[in-house]
Amino acid sequence: MLEIKLAVAKTNKYSVSESGDSVEVTERSRGGLSVVLADAQGSGRSARTNSRLVVAKCASLIGEGARDGAVARAVHDMLFALRDGKVSATLTIISADLETMSLVITQNAGPPVFLLQSDVVMTLDASSQPIGVHRSMKPNVCEVVLEPKLAVMAMTDGIYAAGRAQGIPWQDEEFQAMLLCHGASPEFLAQEILEASLRKGARRAQDDMAVCVLYVGEHSADVKIRTLSVNMPC
C-alpha cells in the first residue's frame, strides 16, 4: 500500500504583505491528490489575486475529473481572457493519480522540477511558455509509474534565484543532492530549502518564495488515517 506525503513552505517578498505565489492541494475525483503551484507576474495584492485565481480554477477542474494537461490549457485560456493577455503566471501541477497509478508533472515556465526515481535525480526543465500571455500554449507533461521512493520538488523563482544578487546562487546540483538525501522527509526538506534561501539573501527575500515536496512511500497499517498539518503566522 502506498502513502503520499506532501509538504509546502512559503513566505512573502521582504516588506510586501501579500504573496504572489499561491499553492493549492486538492483530492482527485478518482483517487490521489494534486498540488498546484502558481507564481503570478509582479508582487503584492494584484499578483496575489491572479495567482489565487489560477490555483483555485485548477483545483476546481481537477476535482471535476479533468486531466492535468487540459487543466493547464483551460486555466491559461481563462487568464488570457480575463486579463487581455497582459498578465503572465508560471504554473506547476504535481499529481499522484491513483486511478492510473502514475505521477504526473505538468509545467508552464518557471524553475525546473526535480524528480527522484530509482535513486537517480532528474531535472525537468520547464521550457514551455507561461500561461496568460499568448493565444496558444502547450504545457510540458511528464508521467512516470507511481511507486515507492518517488520524490518531487518544485519551487518558484524566489527560491531558485535566491542568492544571485549576493553572488551565492543555488546550483541545480545542490537541489539534486538535497532531494536525494532528504526526499523521504518532505516537511524537513521544504523547510530547509526555504531557510537556506532566506539565508542567502540575509533573510530579506527579494521575491515571493514557495517550495513543495511530494514523496511516495509505503504504508503497512490496516487503518488508513489521513493527516494534515498547517502553520500560518498571521
Could you explain the architecture of this structure?
This protein is α+β, with helices and mostly antiparallel strands. The chain has a single domain, classed as Phosphatase 2c, domain 1. It is 28% helix and 32% strand. It is built from five helices and ten strands. It has helices at 45-63, 68-83, 157-160, 172-182, 186-200, and strands spanning 2-11, 21-27, 32-40, 89-97, 102-108, 113-117, 120-124, 140-145, 150-155, 209-218. A five-stranded antiparallel β-sheet has the order 1-10-9-6-7. A five-stranded antiparallel β-sheet has the order 2-3-4-5-8, with helices on one face. α1 (45-63) packs antiparallel against α2 (68-83) and α4 (172-182) runs antiparallel to α5 (186-200). It is globular. The mean pLDDT is 93.
Work out the strand percent.
25-35%
**Element pattern in H and E:** EEEHHEEEEEEHHHE
What would you call the shape?
globular
Main sheet: which strands, in order across? Answer: 1-10-9-6-7
